């Protein structure tokens, strides 16, 4: 692996910092600015691999900001094609291994600041979904990954817009228009197991799955903008997804209607 410029390497190292001013306001904001200016283009593979290293770190803030760094790198490769097929597939595999297994899914910590493993991981999944290097099989796997993260055991209720970020990632998968209606129905059915299996007081995983289903239903109705100021877009399978989600959500409460 080519060594990063010391200044870039130091910024990546600072993503491990427990100080949110160093990590978020400093290092991540600087890397995002460099990415936008095209100044990371010669280092995308090295930075993506450093992001994978962070996903295996002992510190939660390093792992979650590793996912955010990966999102930056994949987003830039989607625009420039400066990475490689092997690298992007390696990153997708590494992200998948980390995302569902991450035990600390808090949105915010009073000392560490924003952690947001669920949201940051979803951002990375959404960028991977937009990669022309990945095809239908990989998109099905990414959709399954988002469902498994949503239904995974956790004590954390999604209160910091995690459902919106995960839903946007799902929409990024659907907007590639490579999945079938059966793929969508299978994913919705797997998601619905998150509340079908719930009894007694509403658990965090059950609540999170309902939140995601409702938010995704809303995004399918309204459409999403792939970038600020961009036109609203809809996936080709919009109606199939709405019917599948509506039928599943109708099970949540007796007073919900069933879509025709």
Supply the helix-strand structural class. Answer: mainly alpha
Number of domains: 2
Strand content: under 5%
Please provide the ordered H/E string of secondary-structure elements.
HHHHHEEHHHHHH
Rg calc: 18 Å
- Taking the alpha carbons of the first and last residues, their distance comes to 55 Å
Description of the structure:
The protein starts with 5 loop residues before the first helix and ends in an 11-residue tail after the last helix. 63% of the residues lie in helices and 2% in strands. The mean pLDDT is 96. With 260 residues, it is an all-alpha fold. It has 2 domains: 1-134; 135-260, no CATH class. It has 11 helices and 2 strands. The chain has helices at residues 6-14, 20-36, 44-55, 60-80, 85-101, 117-129, 136-151, 162-174, 181-196, 204-222, 238-249, and strands spanning 108-109, 113-114. The relative contact order is 0.09.
Which descriptors apply to this entry?
11 helices; 260 residues; two-stranded antiparallel ribbon; mainly alpha; 2% strand
Give a concise summary.
With 260 residues, the chain is mainly α.
How are the SSEs ordered, and which strands pair?
Elements: H1 6-14, H2 20-36, H3 44-55, H4 60-80, H5 85-101, E1 108-109, E2 113-114, H6 117-129, H7 136-151, H8 162-174, H9 181-196, H10 204-222, H11 238-249
Antiparallel strand pairs: 1-2
